[in-house]
Amino acid sequence: SGAEFPVRVSEGALPDRAIVLGFGREAEALGVKADEKLGTDGYVIRTVGDRLVIAGGRPRGTLYGVYSFLHSLGVRWWTPTESFVPDQKTVVVPDTDLRQIPRLEYRDLMFNELWSPAGKLWMARNRVNGMTWESLGEKTGQPGPDKLGDRYRFVGNLVHSYLRLLQKSGMPITEDMMSLVNGKRTSGESSQPCLSNEKVFEAMVRGVLKSFEEVPDAGFVVVGQMDNGNYCRCPDCAAIDEAEESHAGQVIRFANRVAEAVEKARPGSAISTAAYGWSRKPPKSLKPRDNVYITLCPIECDFAHPLADGSSPENLAFKEDIEGWSKIARKLIIWHYVGNRDHYLQPNAELETLVPNLRFFAEHGAAGIFNQGTHLGSATDMTMLKQWVLARAMWDLEADGRALIEEFCRGYYGPAGEDVLKYIDVIHAPARTERFHNGRRVHLAIPYLRPDVLAEAIIPLRAAAAKVAADSDFGRRVRHASMGVWYVLAKRGPGSATWKAVEAKLGEKLDLTVIAGNLARVVKESGVNAICDPHPVAPWLEWLSAYAAKAQELGGPVLPPELQGAPPGSFRLVQANQLDMTPSFWKPVPGASDGYAAVITGPGWHTTYHLSPGEDFSVGKSYTLYVRVRGEMKDNATGPAWEFGIHPGGATVRVEAEKLADGQWHDEVRVELQDCAQAVTA
């Protein structure tokens, strides 16, 4: 409004007009008394004549009340660096009597943008109280959550802490304390402790108590499995699991013992443990103690379809598990997954399930939700919208998810908002009628990236760009929203079915140099730093720029010698940099048609490409798959050097070292694809 509001500690009588912040003598004089039921985050906003009271529980309630009040006046904190504050010469506050207490006691987001001080402030403004486990101040010396109402405090990262706690105990860690797998004790990062070992129990209790000594105000200490499948198979652990018909048997039995010992030494203390991967199925008869909280992880699930529907085997299994845990656990915390870890720039049809899934978690007893987003990559696909919707919905679980998406798009994209909403609808439409798995790692073969869908998706994006000035904030935001379609076009390249479908829809020719330039501009102005988990985007952009220039020079795709002169519709060419993920293997290699190849330097499964129906093949037809390969062999190398094939159940070709000993490129390496099914992996 331009008016100034002096802030002061009240002395004597209140002015005729005043905003009273916090409970105390002044608020009580106006009939607003402290209320323990507000907890740490709840608040009241009440008008009393020409006075306004905003007061809440400690330590965050009053702060959240102020932010809620500003939100009611039209203020929006879209991102850590982009806000909207309306210009109103006269601000009218209607009669108000609002009392809010969040159903979720713990609300958290882990996205790259939120590690910064601006990110922490954005979380406070949008009433996100977790601030991703640790305060930024503890890490960098910069102002942390203590200046923003502090954070929901616990020790650990919600799941993986066994080894850290063993080390913290100060006890020697001996070989027999580690899990037994295939007759051998595990070691290093691939290990788990043996949960029936008494020394492990003693060390874990010590580690937990030391953690409480270091962070005495922590609500709980995480006592959870490491991020691998090497749970203990020793006779004692196996017997527990067999009796409980779940590997959670050994986990819960151990957690109960640790929690009981910790509570005796430190009354009122609690721990949490994980139901994750191999331990996700609830035990048959064991129940967690009241001071054992459960972190439940739907890592296997499909996030394009609501979890409540149980419409896939993965989602149905999780639905059954959360129903089971909700009956036996006093407190559930959900580790939710958001974003595509394998293609940060690619469209991901998960927006319409975000709010329904949060509500589903809460309906099954979740006291907190931690959303693991694309924390290693900034400015990933529609990440600004996802963060805002998640923050708003975690506070108000009754919020309409579609209404939140519409509010953000109309505010953030301005005149282009309606067209961005149309683009979102196009990308999400296949999931409304089709069944497919859209997990935390989504590849190019997903149905909503079919050529016909991409052709429809580019139309509203073109319309959006036409409605805003290119050099404005709205223009920059629309370019970022368009990033996904440009990325898929670049990955599939000139001559692809997607390329042709988009050209036909637009009625014009596409130019790869323009698309490469658009992507480079988005990366620079929006701060995109990675192409996937955890690889930087810059090398791929360098390849794309060079490839586009060469394609423009040639008037078409850059072809290897073997395809020179081949009819354009007779082949589908996939370059190394157009494969799914694994960019650490994409290297400049002399003699490669585009200058790059997927370089394999050791044993193991390295590079995967998911063949897309409608793009790479037509269902029911047969094809020959060629791989262009050369080798750098040691002198006199013999035996199998490399292999490739079709998964699952297809032919595999094993290439002998002698065949590659000449150091030349070979294209004789091939397998046959007979009567192609809906999806195959090369």
Radius of gyration: 28 Å
Whole-number mean pLDDT = 93
Give the percentage of residues in beta strands: 5-15%
Low-confidence stretches: 135-143
Cα end-to-end separation? 61 Å
Q: What structural class do the secondary elements suggest?
A: alpha/beta
Brief overview, please?
The chain is of the alpha/beta class and 682 residues long. The protein has 19 helices and 24 strands. It has a six-stranded parallel β-sheet with strand order 7-14-13-12-11-10. Strands 1-3-2-6 form a four-stranded mixed β-sheet, with helices on one face.
Report what the structure shows.
A six-stranded parallel β-sheet has the order 7-14-13-12-11-10. 44% of the residues are buried. Helices cover 35% and strands 15% of the residues. A hairpin with a 2-residue loop joins strand 15 (530-532) and strand 16. The protein starts with 17 loop residues before the first strand and ends with a strand. It is an alpha/beta fold. The protein is globular, with a radius of gyration of 28 Å.
Keywords:
four-stranded mixed sheet; 682 residues; alpha/beta; six-stranded parallel sheet
Architecture blueprint of SSEs:
Blueprint: E1 18-21, H1 25-29, E2 43-48, E3 51-56, H2 61-72, E4 76-79, E5 82-84, E6 97-100, E7 106-110, H3 117-125, H4 136-140, H5 162-169, E8 180-181, E9 184-185, H6 198-214, E10 221-222, H7 235-244, H8 248-265, E11 271-275, E12 292-296, H9 313-328, E13 332-337, H10 351-363, E14 366-372, H11 383-395, H12 401-412, H13 417-433, H14 451-466, H15 473-492, H16 497-506, H17 512-526, E15 530-532, E16 535-536, H18 538-554, E17 586-588, E18 596-598, E19 610-611, E20 623-629, E21 640-645, E22 652-656, H19 657-660, E23 666-673, E24 680-681
Parallel strand pairs: 1-3, 7-14, 10-11, 11-12, 12-13, 13-14
Antiparallel strand pairs: 2-3, 2-6, 4-5, 8-9, 15-16, 17-18, 19-24, 20-23, 21-22
